[in-house]
Amino acid sequence: MNLPPPRKSFRETQFELREEAILDATNRLLGDKGYEAMSMDDIATEVGIAKGSLYKHFESKEALAGAVMVRLLEQTRAALAAIPSDRPAIERLEALLRWTLSQRLSGSVPHLPSTSPALQTSLMSNREYMDSLMTLSDEIGEMIQRARAEGAIRASLRDEFVLYTLYARTCDPTLEFLKAGGAMSDAEIVEQMVSACFRGMAA
Question: What contacts 132, CB < 8 A, 6 or more positions away?
Fold first, then answer.
């Protein structure tokens, strides 16, 4: 007989809720200020806790930024899993890019790590982040191969090129320029980006 998992104590629940609040605050600050300019003091102030309490959750700014990026990869995998598996692979790839771009425009995804060499270096030594990134890349790679088998991707385009092109689009500064211009809605920006990525610009 399977027993139900033990109930968490009030203290454990509060600890987890505070940790989520810290990650949310860090996510916002990474988007607003960038990795280099963001400090642990900024994060503590944003959450409304003492700096010492912050260090009970995360030992450094590098560890905290890494946790934010790991959570983002997990959310991306969840979004991918939520796309019906019976849809053509190319449509699943488009849906995933559409979700990612929409998250960027809503402020949920900081423009990282492409903008910060220091963060890139830190993430490269973060085992959990690298494992999560490789898992996501493998899942997207499988969809690319399926799309190729279904005749939806040109045979001359290598799998690595398609994968890195999708990653590049998720951190494309074009989104910010178009949003700042104000001539297009977020939905229009996303559809233009997805269309250009998968169907090109030729008439």
Answer: 70, 73, 74, 77
| CA angle, residues 196, 178, 198, in degrees to nearest 5 | 10
Nearest 5°: phi and psi at 8?
A: -75, 145
Distance CA 201, CA 203 (A): 6
Diameter of the chain measured on Cα atoms: 63
Q: What is the 3-state secondary structure (H, E, C) of 123-142?
A: HHCCHHHHHHHHHHHHHHHH
Highest mean pLDDT of the ranges 7-21, 31-45, 180-194 = 180-194
User: Would the pTM of this model clear 0.90, i.e. be above it?
Assistant: no
CB 83 within 8 A of CB 152: no
- Spatial separation of the C-alpha atoms in residues 38 and 30, rounded to whole Å: 7
